[in-house]
């Protein structure tokens, strides 16, 4: 990975101002090339998905992996003091999606020189497909977080300052259609598969490898299908079947991730918040630490640091003296820890679900073992996987418990993904934080205050349509 991030990122590229309109980018000096915008969007997306910043991504706390030491409001589901939802909208609609929209505009407006006339149509189709796959990923994440969202009228770069909200189920169906077309549009033939024609090192995910993008697209389609399994079984099975037949991730070599660098501003957002901030804000959550201790899970030495030779987690929702509890593991104190967007471990759990639900994608028990083994391998503990699987075998009579519990443990460093597994499968059984503002673990985020200020009619209509703008209102696919 070349130091492409540092060379083009945004201190020199964008100028600053602020706005509450999700269609307007405060960094809107788009005097650049599409590849630069793609790099920006990918880094911003990875930063959001992976950061533990309490201002924008608290899902390590929600999933009871970590506990705050001093300021425990977010552990107890108070997300309003820091306007967390506002920042989620800015991260995704402004920093990610607006960059991708503008990149598409520049590609569509480009006039090829004579030497490019024959190859440009194919290159253009490939580049637009890659960008659209990233948009699908981002919109799915927004639906999964909020429910109904601005979609068909969003990201018009100032063309609509009050976008309507679209029904979440309708958005999902459209995302599946888009993704299928994107995968079809990617042409991996040799004359169109030059890295220099497909963003090259500006593509932080796959360095312009179109075959890898196809695999990622199919894996994302599998995720979309599995997610709606309880709300639209026929579309879910059809989508999952297509994805599996087309080819999903089969090893960690297919992982979608950003390799962070050793210096600011391109180091890991986990490192930024845990080490570089010179603060001791997080320790292990008692729920996960106790489970791993009880089940002799050797990954605990990678997930956390011992205190006096043992691993100790704090009660969820309670303040903690940093020295008395297990801090996050070395990965959190390493600047170059990659940012994960999707990996094979996650996909193997989806394949387990597909096998359990529909008898497709291979034997559920085999994929379950593959998922757990992949997780142990990712954390440098391959030799311990077989014994752990033997002690925690796949249970076809209660496969949701098997998958839900083990995905929760394995998705420790992918908390947004973990939140989806937990809401869909209802395992493990998590109790609300000790001083929680509600009587259950949150199943969605509330809409941003900024939307009530600038887009009140549409956000109020959306809140009414989903059954109330509450942390306890379930997303349309969360049926259990």
Automatic annotation (TrEMBL):
PROSITE patterns: PROKAR_LIPOPROTEIN. This is Susd and RagB outer membrane lipoprotein. SUPFAM superfamilies: TPR-like. It comes from the Bacteria. Keywords: Lipoprotein. InterPro entries: SusD-like_2, TPR-like_helical_dom_sf. It comes from Chryseobacterium soldanellicola.
